Amino acid sequence: MPWHLSLTVDRNAQLPLGAQVQGSLRRLIEDGTLSSGSRLPSSRQLAADLEISRSVVVEAYEQLSAEGYLVARRGSGTVVAENVRDHPGAGSVLTSPQPEPTDATWDLRTGSSDVSTFPRQEWIRSVAAALTDAGRTELGYGPPSGVLLTRHVLVGYLGRVRGVRTQPQNLMITAGFAQGLALLCKVLRDRGHDALGVEDPGHPGEREFITSAGLRPVGIPVDADGLRVDRLEESGVRVVLTTPANQFPTGVPLSQERRERLISWARAVDGYVVEDDFDSAYLNRSERIPALQSLAPDRVVYAGSASKVLAPALRLGWMAAPSELMASVESARVGWDIGCSGIEQLAFARFITEGAHDRHQRKLRAEFRKRRELVRELLPHHLPGARVLGGDSGLQAYVELPPGVDETALVQSARARSVLVRGGTFYTLDDRTRPPALVVSYATVGCPGLKASTAALGAAYREVTGRRPG
Predict the structure, then answer these.
(1) Which of 30, 99, 115, 379 has the fewest CB atoms within 10 Å around its CB?
(2) How far apart are CA 220 and CA 366, in angstroms?
(3) 355 contacts: CB under 8 Å, gap ≥ 6
């Protein structure tokens, strides 16, 4: 394979050619430009590319191999050695570093999805079919709002499974929920908004995202009936972000009375409700009431994604908005990018229309029902005096602890037992009146792991509180 390498030499320099090649390669490896495992051209190929003697390149490769920078593999050529340098910048500058180590046996923190269930073969078939059928139009630049066919399919799908009332021209396909929120924040800021209501407790990452977008997140307390609309009415904000179907992280649904009052509030203040329907696929049939958007398509922005059902790496999300608001979002999108991958969108449309999406969700609901029932059975036993809030849906359990339990000490004790879990205060913005709590995610841990990890949590609980299992 004639691998290419961006490297030059200066024949007029006093430094010998071999030293130039060595120095250039060493710098490329040390600054991370050439990462571990990167394939280098053969000595013959690089010498030909640089128009120098092959012996010069051979000597450089041998010296760097002796220093541990390169590894020569028989039949595979020369590659950059593993772990030559630790690069602390390997993560994204847009995401906060995890404060906890990740080498624990069980990770019960929220924010992940079970990508091990990803239906690879069915997705491959959908991608292959989309590529087979794609012509000039499909392989070219698509509308910024998304491929029209996919928007048509999503409109029908969301109407069927969530009661969403919209039209293709009022639905945009985004790179996950995050891009939709970013576009919306920009439009709101341009319209003079300086604040956005958020649930408290809620998603800390979304709060940071809103702040970085130039808006001030205003915490609205949550109780057993969901978002407290009375406190929203007192806040002065005119837009609120909420998870009404299954509040994150408490798991309580927004009551019918509050759903209606929330819509009335939006009309009264000439504002909007942003509905994050992030885990609707995991709602039990008995708890799956239509989306809040179905009550007021002119006042509710509905948003969702495939991240929690398929995989975050697909970066497939959608946002349905009132027409006058969508026009502004489309204008913002034009100056932002030129849309998501059309092939992925077409594959997703086929994945839905052929029933693969429904089949996959049924399997997920069955599996997560088992995990949820197990967690609700085990946690009260291992953590006597604690109670699990919310209904029988979702990806996590909000465990309210008895008053006086040291939440921080419990999290640390769990970490010492190789269990990563977060306390309720991690999700809190301003409301410090809530009892201590743990938020236990079962998104990536199966039933055997849940049995072991909740037992370890119980040991940590006994150490901190002195309470014995119930």
Answers:
(1) 99
(2) 33
(3) none
Extract the runs of DSSP E, i.e. beta strands, from 228-299. Answer: 239-242, 272-276
For the record, the structure tokens of 428 come out as 């809190």
Q: Which of 54, 44, 58, 47 is nearest to 7 (CA)?
A: 47
Tens-place pLDDT, residues 54-83: 998 898 888 888 778 888 877 678 888 886
Are 275 and 303 within 8 A, CB to CB? Answer: yes
With the C-alpha atoms ordered 18, 19, 24, 29, is the resulting torsion angle positive or negative?
positive
Q: How far is CA 91 from the centre of its chain?
A: 14
Name all domains of the chain by residue range, CATH numbers in brackets: 17-80 (1.10.10.10), 106-113+358-465 (3.90.1150.10), 120-354 (3.40.640.10)
Torsion angles phi and psi, residue 272, rounded to 5: -140, 155
Pairing between strand 77-80 and 70-73? antiparallel
Contacts of 21 (CB under 8 A, 6+ apart): 7, 9, 46, 50, 52, 56, 57, 60
How many Cβ atoms are within 10 Å of 223's Cβ, its own excluded?
A: 15
Show the beta-strand stretches assigned E in 145-232.
Answer: 171-174, 195-200, 216-223, 226-227
What is the phi-psi region of residue 180: left when phi exceeds 0, alpha when psi lies from -120 to 50, beta otherwise?
Answer: alpha
Counted residue by residue, the chain has a size of: 470
186 phi and psi angles, rounded to 5 deg: -60, -45
